[in-house]
C-alpha cells in the first residue's frame, strides 16, 4: 500500500494559482461590460466606416438615366481620390486648422488661468465656481450653438446693444468674422471642461512642495511659475490633444450658423461635407464617399495629434 504526500510548498503554489485564476475571472467579469460597449459604440462603427469607404452606391440599370435600384459596388480607393481631389475639402480643412491655431491656445490658457485661481487661496467657495465654470459644457452643443445664434443675430443681438452704447457695431455673421464667432462659442463651451483637467492635476501636487517653497522665500507667482505650471504639463498634453481632435471635427457651430448664413455652403468644414454627402445634399453622395471623408478627417486629426505629442515630448526632454 502506497500513500501520496503533498509538500507544503506545492500546496501553497496551487492555492496561490487558484486564487489568481479566480481574481482574473472576476476582473474579466468586471471589465467585460465596458469592453462590449466599447466595441459596439467605438470599434465596430470604425470598422464599418472603413469598410464602407471602399464602396459606392450606383444605379443597377443600364439605360440613359440609370434606372433600377442602387447597388453597393466596390470602387477601391476612388472615394478617397475624389474626396482628396475636391478643393472644398482642403478649403474646409484650412478653415478648421486656422480656427484651431487661434482658438485652442486661447482656450487652454484661459482654462489654465481659471484652474490656477481655483487652486489658490483667493477663492473661498471653490465648488460653486467650479460648477459655474463647468456648466457651459453640460449644455448640449447644438443647444449652445442655437443660443449663440440668437446672441449674434444683428436684428436683436443683446451683445450689439451693449456695444452700441459705446458706438460699436459688429456683424458676427460677416465673412471675415464668422469663424471667430464659432471660436467664441467653442471657447465658452469647453474652457470649463479643460479647467477641470488642469485643476485635477494641480490638486494632485503634494502640498509639501508649496510649503517648502514658501519656507525658502518663494513668492506666490514663483510657486505658480516654477512648480504649478511645470507640474501640469501632462494635463496640458491631454487637453491640447483632445482640443486638436475636436477642432478637426468642428460641426455643430457651423451647421447652426449656416441656417442663417447660406453663403457658408454645405461644405464649410470637412465634417459638414461628410454629413451632407451622406444625406445626399452634396455630390458624390452616399455612405461610401461620406465614410472616405470621415476616414481622411480621422487621419488628419491623428497626424496632428501625433506631431504635437512628439514635439511636446522633445520639449520636455
Explain this structure to me?
The chain has 317 residues and is mostly helical. Helix content is 72%, strand content 3%. The protein is built from 13 helices and 2 strands, in the order αββαααααααααααα. The chain has helices at residues 8-52, 78-84, 87-119, 126-138, 141-152, 158-164, 178-203, 207-215, 220-231, 233-248, 252-258, 270-279, 287-316; strands at residues 55-59, 70-74. The protein has a two-stranded antiparallel ribbon with strand order 1-2. Helix 3 packs across helix 7, helix 4 packs across helix 7 (178-203) and helix 5 crosses helix 7 (178-203). It is flat. The termini are far apart. It is found in: Cell membrane. The chain crosses the membrane at residues 28-51, 96-119, 131-152, 172-202, 231-251, 292-311. Belongs to the binding-protein-dependent transport system permease family. This is Sugar ABC transporter permease. Its main location: membrane.
Please supply descriptive tags for the structure shown above.
317 residues; mainly alpha; two-stranded antiparallel ribbon; 13 helices; 3% strand; flat
